[in-house]
Amino acid sequence: MKPLAFLLAITSVMIAAWFAPAGATRVQAMPRAADAANGAALFQQYDCAKCHQADANGGLGPDGEEAPKIAGTRLSYDDFIAQIRMPVDRMQAFPDMGDADGQDLYAYLKTLP
Ligand code: HEC
């Protein structure tokens, strides 16, 4: 191989290596799709049913809190996650719930009648 051809070959390999990780990062940065099945598991894990009942149609919590129906919620996602992290009244707060869990829970509740 002539020196110039060798240099070109090496350079193109280096350029390819430089851009490959950037491409991978872009793919990871794409928004994840909400997972309603995982949301069903989170509903159990966070024990939302303790007050909202297993069918999420609302009821009384252990201290007589009147928990409204959240099945098929009409709240926007932003209002939904705000209520979970900083409830307006007597609901238990989940201040550390991340958006991944929040979106999955929201997607699950949207599937319920
Ligand atoms: C300790 C009882 C309790 C638990 C546990 C609880 N909630 Fe609530 N929730 C309430 C009460 C009571 C309200 C009425 C507003 C308030 O008190 O803040 C409410 C209101 C809501 C609302 C607003 C409904 C609307 O349409 O305005 C949403 C959404 C909600 N809860 C979701 C959840 C989710 C999701 C979980 C589990 C992560 C959960 N809640 C756990 C008692 C509870």
Description:
By secondary structure, the protein is mainly alpha-helical. It has a domain at about 35-110: Cytochrome c-like domain (Cytochrome Bc1 Complex, Chain D, domain 2, Orthogonal Bundle), CATH 1.10.760. The chain has five helices and two strands, in the order αααββαα. The protein has helices spanning about 5-30, 35-45, 50, 75-85, 100-110; strands at about 60, 65. It has a two-stranded antiparallel ribbon with strand order 1-2. A hairpin with a 5-residue loop joins strand 1 and strand 2. The radius of gyration is 24 Å and the shape is elongated. The model has no long low-confidence stretch (mean pLDDT about 85). The structure holds heme C (HEC).
Quick structural summary:
The chain has 113 residues and is mainly alpha-helical. The chain has helices spanning 3-28, 36-45, 49-52, 77-85, 99-111, and strands at residues 59-60, 66-67.
